[in-house]
Write a structure and sequence with these properties.
Elements lengths: L13 E3 L9 E2 L2 H13 L1 E10 L9 E9 L2 E5 L8 H6 L4 E4 L2 H10 L6 E4 H8 L6 H9 L1 E3 L15 H12 L1 H15 L2 H12 L23 H21 L3 H4 L2 H10 L4 H5 L10 H16 L21 H4 L1 H21 L3 H4 L2 H9 L7 H11 L3 H19 L2
Parallel strand pairs: 1-8, 2-5, 3-6, 6-7
Antiparallel strand pairs: 3-4, 4-5
Helix pairs in contact: 4-7, 5-7, 9-11, 9-13, 15-17, 15-19, 18-19
Organism: Kitasatospora camelliae
Protein name: Ribonuclease D
GO molecular function: 3'-5' exonuclease activity; nucleic acid binding; nucleotide binding
Length: 411
């Protein structure tokens, strides 16, 4: 069975150029915020919520503009730099359903200013579950509503003050369509028999705990795979941590302080002095003397670390080994994983949704490496639930994975 997806309108999309009630003023002081809180508390129905960050420009992922729209309340554009505590607004919207696009991107920065939903509808995730091939807000708005959103300001520096009017217009239009998009996607999901799946996913998003700090974040340095020796890994770590400190102090994106490629190049070369470091690709004469001294000091710290204290070659983890090692370590487990992956892929294709939304690949690996006994559908389902799978996911995939395990055991 292949689920239907709403057809893309045959006519050209209608461009959205101006907010319906005009461009509202930016809320940037306590008096304006109090009036906004009262207006949105008096509104009805779902509230569209969006946030703009300065990724690539500033350190961290804080919000630099927050947009809201609700029936009876209109649209609000809030400056969280001028109004850093929005907990009163969060409380006013506590009983409302929040409509967001790509909740995992916006919810952390909204939580930083005191706004946390109790119920939400994620239009990006809804699009994935419904089987849309392109789930960005622009493509979704075009294919579902026949409306065109200009997206040329999506990657600008939202920490700019004052914010230019064209940027504010762009931001206001983003929440103009969200509730209408939500309603259309709800109908689409209901027609496909997937609405209950989506609601369970949305509830999990709204109630998810804050993620724990990442262990060894420096290991996410791009091109790290080029670094093989533990001493060089220590150099990557020291350079990364130095860059992170400088970026935090200056409130700039770490990549603007020093590119990842430069960190890896320096770790591979391990230059001993300033001229040698300047010769490393990614550094050069534009790096000021003080920063050169800091990078050289980081490299020297890496040289002085005792052998026993060097970072391990691979990141510590509590799960199964990398799948590429399974065939040597446990061929039966490798056969289980191969069968389970194929079963999940077939199910995902049948239900017209991405395999990673049907079940998280990590859960498939974990249950394949240490299957329950007996490995029947009920036990596999219980194991998946313990690992965090949702009920709808378990109902679909547990029988298929159990069958794959049985087939692997009989080989």
């Amino acid at each position: 069975m292949t689920d239907a997806v709403a057809a893309i309108p045959e006519t050209a999309p209608v461009p959205l150029l101006e907010p319906r009630e005009g461009l509202p003023p930016v809320v940037a002081d306590d008096a304006a915020l109090a009036a906004t809180v009262a207006a949105f508390a008096a509104g009805t129905g779902p509230v569209a919520v969006d946030a703009e960050r300065a990724s690539g420009y500033r350190y961290g992922q804080r919000a630099y503009l927050i947009q809201l729209r609700r029936a009876g309340s209109g649209t609000a554009l809030i400056d969280p730099i001028g109004c850093p505590d929005l907990s009163a607004l969060g409380e006013a919207l506590a009983d409302a359903e929040w409509v967001v696009h790509a909740a995992t991107q916006d919810l952390p920065c909204l939580a930083e200013v005191g706004m946390r939903p109790t119920r939400l509808f994620d239009t990006e995730l809804a699009g994935r579950l419904a089987g849309f091939p392109r789930v960005g807000l622009g493509p979704m708005t075009e294919s579902v509503l026949g409306l065109s959103l200009a997206k040329e300001h999506s990657a600008v520096d939202w920490s700019t003050r004052p914010l230019p009017e064209p940027w504010l217009r762009y931001a206001a239009l983003d929440v103009e369509v969200l509730v209408e998009l939500r309603d259309a996607l709800e109908a689409e999901l209901a027609g496909q028999g997937k609405l209950a799946w989506a609601l369970e996913e949305f509830s999990a998003l709204a109630n998810a705990p804050r993620p724990a700090p990442r262990v060894d974040p420096w290991r996410r340095t791009s091109q790290l795979h080029k670094v093989r020796r533990r001493r060089q890994l220590a150099a990557v770590r020291e350079l990364w941590e130095t860059r992170d400190r400088i970026a935090r102090e200056r409130d700039v994106s770490p990549g603007r302080v020093l590119p990842d490629a430069a960190i890896v190049n320096a770790a591979l070369a391990m230059p001993l002095n300033a001229p040698a470091l300047i010769a490393v690709q990614g550094f050069g004469p534009r790096v000021n003397r003080r920063q050169l001294d800091q990078w050289l000091a980081a490299l020297q710290r890496a040289r002085e670390i005792p052998e026993a204290q060097l970072p391990p070659a691979s990141a510590p983890h509590d799960g199964p080994p990398p799948p590429r090692a399974w065939a040597d370590k446990d061929p039966v487990a490798a056969a289980r994983l191969s069968g389970a992956r194929a079963a999940v892929s077939e199910l995902a294709e049948r239900h017209n949704l991405p395999a990673e939304n049907l079940i998280t690949p990590d859960l498939v690996r974990r249950v394949s490496w240490e299957p329950p006994a007996p490995a029947d559908a009920e036990s596999v389902g219980a194991a998946l639930r313990t690992l965090g799978a949702r009920r709808w996911q378990v109902a679909l995939v547990a029988p298929a994975i159990a069958a794959a395990f049985a087939a692997a055991a009989s080989q």
